[in-house]
Amino acid sequence: MSSNRSRQPRRRPVPKGQARYQPSASPTRRSVEQASATPLVFLHQLPVWLPPLVTVALLITGLAVRGPVGAAALCLLAVLLGWLAIVSWPGLSSRGRLGRALAIACVLAVAGLQASR
């Protein structure tokens, strides 16, 4: 029996705690949170090392490959960072919001440079 359990992928439980949605959120915010719930649970179920590895791979590809391929990798990275920033926005301080916005702007600026090469 123990060999049967070891073949099944290990699932990390979703953290317990308060609601995952902002109680006083606007209808737009609520729809973004609801649309993001399934992808966030999916990301949570992946091995801990995989999302950072994909993020670093997109960054390295975007910086190393010239032209549209590198720009596309950086744009994908900017979309990922933007989505995570939107989801975490209510819990951030103004410095955290500024840092995320600057990071996304820098990635998009480098993507523009890569596209012109």
How does this structure look, described?
The chain has 117 residues and is an all-alpha fold. It has one domain (30-115). It has helices spanning 2-7, 27-45, 50-64, 68-88, 94-115. Helix 3 (50-64) packs antiparallel against helix 4 (68-88) and helix 4 packs antiparallel against helix 5 (94-115). The longest helix has 22 residues, at 94-115. The radius of gyration is 18 Å and the shape is globular. It starts with a helix and ends with a helix. 9% of the residues are buried. The mean pLDDT is 86.
- Count of β-strands: 0
Q: What is the helix/strand order?
A: HHHHH
Proportion of strand residues: under 5%
The percentage helix is over 70%
Number of helical segments with 4 or more residues: 5
Q: Tally the structural domains.
A: 1
What labels would you give this structure?
mainly alpha; globular; single chain
Summarize this, please?
With 117 residues, the chain is an all-alpha fold.
Helices and strands, with pairings:
Blueprint: H1 2-7, H2 27-45, H3 50-64, H4 68-88, H5 94-115
Helix pairs in contact: 3-4, 4-5
